[in-house]
Amino acid sequence: MRKLIFFILPLLAGAVCLAAGQDAPSPQTAGRLRAKADSALAYCRAKGMNTDFCLLADMGVHSGRKRMWVWDFRKGAAALSSLCCHGCGQGGTGAKPVFSNVPGSNCTSLGKYRLGARSWSNWGIHVHYKMHGLEPTNDKAFERIVVLHSFSPVPDVEIHPFHLPMGWSLGCPVISDSAMAAVDSMMQKSAKPVLLWIYY
Q1: 160-190 confidence digits (pLDDT tens)
Q2: 6 vs 127: CA distance, rounded Å
Q3: Do residues 132 and 116 touch, judged by C-beta distance below 8 A?
Q4: What are the distances in angstroms from CA 44 to CA 48, 77, 126?
Q5: Looking at residue 26, what is its pLDDT?
Q6: Residue 150: pLDDT above 90?
Q7: Which residues 6+ apart lie within 8 Å of 199 measured at CB?
Q8: This prediction's pTM
Q9: If you count DSSP H runs as helices and E runs as strands, how many of each does the chain have, helices first?
């Protein structure tokens, strides 16, 4: 029995360390995140958008790790994070997304977006936000009905080394229900348009 306890305790300690550290981005990802946040703040100031917070999604991060962040400009830190699905079109896989702005491609489009009207969603918490692409790489997002929404099967915890299943997104950035509820609360209090930036 004593040997069994000595065997199990290190495993439990390792599990606790994994749970405590799994939300923290890698140093490389954190560096990209901060650089994007700095650029996002400058952009929001120039365009008259919300300078309290923005949403940043790094599609270069493994889909089983949290890669969508709500960035608090005032604190200079992430307020929350979520797993985020990418589009399943054009032969994309969990490990290697394919990006496209073409209608019917079912792919995620890279670039900056202005989050628009709040509306009903068939999925998740039944709320979505329209997405208006601000660059040539994503200017057909509204036409493609690409929106920010949640999907209940998206977990709140990281699943790495597994990827999120393909087919949960047809191009939309899809996040967990709890993350969407938090984002929705913040969005409803925002007097200015909010920036969502999807990058790779």
Answers
A1: 999 999 999 999 999 999 999 999 999 999 9
A2: 49
A3: yes
A4: 6, 16, 28
A5: 86
A6: yes
A7: 32, 36, 56, 57, 58, 59, 60, 110, 111
A8: 0.88
A9: 3, 8
